[in-house]
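Tutorial, part two.
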Amino acid sequence: MGEGGPVILWFRRDLRLDDHPALVQACSADAGVVPVFIHDETVESLGAAPKWRLGLSVAALGEDLARLGSRLILRRGSALPVLEELIRETGARAVYWTRYYAPDHIARDMGVKAALKAKGIVAQSFSGALLHEPRDIQTGAGGPYSVFTPFWRAVRSRDPGAPLPAPRGLRPPDVWPMSDRLPDWSMGAAMQRGAAVLAPYQTVGARAADSRLSQFLHERLTGYTRLRDMPAVPATSGLSENLAWGEISPRRIWHETLTRADLSSTTSTGAEKFLSELGWREFAWHLMTHHPTLAQQNWRKGWDGFPWQSDNEDAERWRRALTGEQMVDAGLREMYVTGRMHNRVRMLVASYLTKHLLTDWRVGLRWFEDCLTDWDPAANALGWQWVAGSGPDAAPYFRIFNPATQAERFDPGGIYRRRYLDAREAPARAYFDAVPLSWALSPDGRQPRPLIDLTKGRARALAAYEQARSGR
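Running the prediction step on this input gives:
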């Protein structure tokens, strides 16, 4: 880098100071550091809940930087012209950022890098979003994996390295550029009244994420394998929210979990299962990197002729959590109240839509994309295709989750269902405060009648599968 000019550190979905290779490199450049967040097209295209939650994370990062005597510069517009303007204003000679593997981000970053390099500006991206670069994990034949188990064996045997410490301070530039005001962006506008309902359930920022990880490892890791599928029990880490926005690094989670796992064999069992879930996240990004249309097209091309329905009245009843299947409705209401949904319940909610209601998995994917505060494009796409049967490493199509038997097995006391369906419970009442007024819903205590008999729905789904497979 040329002398005299600062480094622009472009934050995206890496909103932390700990274990941040691009930040470490910027701090080692013997120059001022200008932290920047850009509200560009990739931000504007986010669904209502993800955009709102991202805004909370950006605010938390700004506070963390202020504690170090720095600041976060906010700008709105397409990334390249914004960066070029900042370079003119600050005399910056380099721009650093963390790689993110969503297709729209990759296309944008390639264009930014080429344009800046053509002007003599150092433009460099760094790892940090995943344990390993997606293209570094290869089969023996040198290609990508399409089945999780061998992928996990390959990842589990690799050391991602130790996490990097956060800097103690950032050298400021000679002159700070002007910044937008975050409230002026109105990132929660599409949430309307739902933001107030979801706000108490968010654990925002890097410091909160670190505390959440510590609490999980000390209090829940031992019972994780046994209890992780019970939605009424606080047995999971809750870190999907923080991983989605880069408030904590997967490498930090990996390192701290292995350190904790040395304490006992029971804990070690929980640690292995927990780490494999982190591996599933890696697998999703591995697939999306090699198959950029994972969120738009059936991964298994033979499924293009499957007779899924497009959006329909039954899907609208599903969206409104009015299917009459208590476990399905409770899961969707959990999402509207908290911004997240227990993973076991996500699977049966998705199975009910794609199999009992024979609705295209992309209808559900788009709805989750709008409603989840822990929305992750790769994990969301893989999860929907896995459940639908059209994806890599998919569940067999005949594995159709029965919401009633799933409820008996994983919510035997009905605690989870009452929490979100019984109007005497605060979360259940909050659902009516979170959803659009246009739905005209009220907590009158009446449960909707089931959309479809579960046995008939299963038979219909299997018949559709057999018809599609036979080509009739």
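The chain has a mean pLDDT of 94. In part three we will examine how such features are distributed along the chain.
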